[in-house]
Amino acid sequence: MKIDELDGFIFDLDGTLFASTGMWHDIYGKALAHFGIDMPADYTEHVNHLNIARGTAYTAERFGIEGGAKAVERVWRELSGKAYANDIELTPHAKELLYALKKEDKHLAIATALDRDLAEACLSRHGIASLFEAFAEVGEVGRDKSSPDVYLHAAKLIGLPPARCAVFEDGEVGARSAHGAGFFTAGVIDPFSGSDPQRMAAVCDRLERDLGGYLADIVS
User: Fold for domain 3-19+89-219?
Assistant: First the structure.
């Protein structure tokens, strides 16, 4: 099935709609350095698909950080809060794609590991919050993106089965679980996601350098 024949379009935020994964990569490194730890090469891939609660818990447990997850969360939130409210930009062609989909009466939803308060600050600043009919986050479904639950919840909120929806993802973990649940998986390449493009290609129905590749199909 061609992507423009689908009815529902479910978007990840960090790295897919938000050009924010470079910021998070920097935050991860700074936070670990704050606790005297050098960031391992595999850390980003393990933590990127987790929300703040699970990501900080994972970090505290993995490195035995004094003060636990709360200590890590204080650093993450201090560094990220102002960025989402003031600095984070959209990825190339993101706004154009969203408006093109709405013009075609498509149903739009978000499925993210990002906490809602940070997400809404950025969505509102860019004037796109009202384009989405539904917001699903891993914190409310209780499982991270290694499970398809957050995508299934988003699809349910817009009243569509997985087979009628595309999931846009920059991370291999999420793309793999969405694909396994029957969604059309539309991958984008993000250099800070920790996901290898070859592995992404193996779990996506389609992989593009950015959202512009999909925009061309919608407006053609």
Answer: Rossmann fold (3.40.50)
